[in-house]
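Review this today:
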Amino acid sequence: MKAFLKRSLSFAASISFAGILLTPILSSAAEIKVASAAGFRVVMRDVGPQFERAHGHKLVISYANMGPTLKKVQEGVAADLVILPKPAVDTLVKDGKVVAASVTPVARSLLYLATAKGVPTPDIASPEEFKRTLLAAKSITYADPKGGSAAGTQLAKIIDQLGITKDLQSKVLLLPLSTEMAKAVAAGKVEVLLHQHANLKTISGIDIVGPLPGSLQNPVVFTAVIPTNSKETGAAKALIDFLRTPESAKVIKAKGMEPA
């Protein structure tokens, strides 16, 4: 009986000691709420789980286009980290909604042109040739700026800059998501697609021609920042640092973006 009690007490002590060792690890794990632009989803799908395994934190990520995400943060949505294109982050800094010192560019996404399979490869080496390509196209699609898309907003400005907004009006199909573009391609409704390279890489049935010519190119710079109402600033900073590691850079490049 004494031997049994001794073994029982020893086992209980070991369990208690293990609990003490585990307590700091468990208490340091955080749930990080992330509000992200939809365009960065392709990166976070891979980087998110890598970060969780490396740090023990859990990510809860909500995605939406730039406009809706910006509005949510301005209205005080509970978030520990925000990832948005730089102009939106600049607005949040100006509004005092985020910590200016935490602003960190994490990836650059170039605007590209693609065509449906079977369409002759156009020349887009210069702004003039790019303009001619759009004017000659039977149908064009890009993200609807009214939906708050960063790429769509940029492309609308570029087309306006080229002075062909009215010329393209009858043949432009504005769509809210890359998935809708994919459906339009599959249905044979689209000849030319304009979007971020990372988004075009997710669409089958197309040939990616290349980036918009240099003088027209205006990369979408995804930028991470910590809101002033963040409850997990330390864990959020760890995520920002992780997005700047060589491991994350490999994912960013694989998805069609450039590390910032």
Observations:
- Residues 111-211 form a domain with the D-Maltodextrin-Binding Protein; domain 2 fold (CATH 3.40.190.10).
- The longest helix spans residues 2-28.
- The CA atoms of residues 178 and 199 lie 6 Å apart.
- Residues 1-27 have pLDDT under 50 and may be disordered.
